[in-house]
Write a structure and sequence with these properties.
The protein has 2 helices and no strands. It is mostly helical. It has one domain. The two termini are about 35 Å apart.
Length: about 70
């Protein structure tokens, strides 16, 4: 077996998948909580910040995995 295989791309792809799942789950939770009139608004704000952070991480990882076609 070839020991020179770069596993970084595979690890990044797995991390990207996990981040997308977490982002989607947070989307669902935020949507559900947004419909509740008795929601804890501080908690909702923290969840939205977490979702935004995940979106930024996803975009950064996608930029690393997808080559720049203009280069």
């Amino acid at each position: 077996m070839n020991e020179n295989v770069d596993t970084t791309a595979f690890q990044n792809a797995r991390r990207l998948r996990d981040l997308r799942v977490e982002h989607r789950d947070l989307d669902n939770v935020i949507d559900h909580l947004g419909k509740d009139p008795d929601v804890d608004h501080i908690m909702l704000r923290r969840l939205k910040k977490r979702r935004l952070m995940l979106k930024d991480l996803i975009e950064r990882l996608e930029d690393e995995l997808i080559p720049d076609l203009n280069a």
